[in-house]
Amino acid sequence: MKHLLLAIAFLLIIFSPVYSQEGWRQLTTDDGLSSNGINTIFQTQNGDIWIGTDEGLNRYNGVFEGFLHGHGGGPVNILFASSTG
């Protein structure tokens, strides 16, 4: 009985990372990201994801919106939240 429980626990540990990654999706320039060279990522309280790349700043909320990209924007290395909301 002890060996059976250990075998089940082992299988759960081995297969749990594979199962947890099924819902992940990789986003690239083909989806509208300004560059695949990502420097920083930040998610706001409302769920928007801000991505700083070596080609500019992008907001993702189901679709990409580029900020600074194509308008003289350069690398974005750091994102932070304001405490004033």
Briefly note the structural class of the backbone. Answer: alpha+beta
Cα gyration radius (Å): 19 Å
Instruction: Categorize the overall geometry.
Output: elongated
- Element-level helix/strand string: HEEEE
Q: Biggest β-sheet: count, sense, barrel?
A: 4 strands, antiparallel
Q: Could you tell me the mean pLDDT?
A: 76
Low-confidence stretches: none
Share of residues in strands: 15-25%
For the secondary structure, the number of strands is: 4
User: How helix-rich are the residues, as a percent range?
Assistant: 10-25%
Count, helices: 1
Oligomer class: single chain
Distance between the termini: 56 Å
Task: For the largest sheet, list the strands in their spatial order.
Answer: 1-2-3-4
Which descriptors apply to this entry?
single chain, 85 residues, alpha+beta, four-stranded antiparallel beta sheet, 1 helix, 22% helix, elongated
Topology (SSEs and partners):
Blueprint: H1 2-20, E1 38-43, E2 49-53, E3 56-60, E4 64-67
Antiparallel strand pairs: 1-2, 2-3, 3-4
